[in-house]
């Protein structure tokens, strides 16, 4: 079975330290289909790589991580 990788680029608000980054990564990693989470604390940006056969953008954005740290999708 081949992964269908997609990237979701986000502007993330409310992050102030590496613990914020770790919290987001841990919460997203609990979702089946997440391949990688890369977050730039200083820029307030994140890229979530996921398997589109298992997960979609809407499901990712509904994750608890983005209730704590609001995020909006950036144009690819």
Automatic annotation (TrEMBL):
Name of protein: Heavy-metal transport ATPase related protein
Keyword field: Metal-binding
Lineage: Archaea, Methanobacteriati, Methanobacteriota, Methanomada group, Methanococci
InterPro entries referenced in this protein's UniProt entry, alphabetically: HMA_dom, HMA_dom_sf
Annotated HMA domain residues: 6-72
UniProt source species: Methanococcus maripaludis (strain DSM 14266 / JCM 13030 / NBRC 101832 / S2 / LL)
Gene Ontology molecular function terms on file: metal ion binding
SUPFAM superfamilies, per database record: HMA, heavy metal-associated domain
Gene3D superfamilies documented for this protein: 3.30.70.100
Pfam families in UniProt: HMA (PF00403)
Leader sequence residues: none
């Amino acid at each position: 079975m081949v992964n269908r990788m997609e990237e979701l680029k986000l502007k993330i608000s409310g992050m102030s330290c590496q613990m914020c980054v770790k919290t987001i990564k841990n919460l997203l990693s609990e979702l089946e289909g997440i391949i990688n989470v890369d977050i730039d604390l200083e820029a307030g940006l994140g890229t979530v790589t996921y398997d589109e056969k298992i997960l979609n953008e809407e499901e990712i954005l509904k994750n608890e991580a983005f209730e704590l740290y609001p995020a909006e999708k950036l144009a690819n």
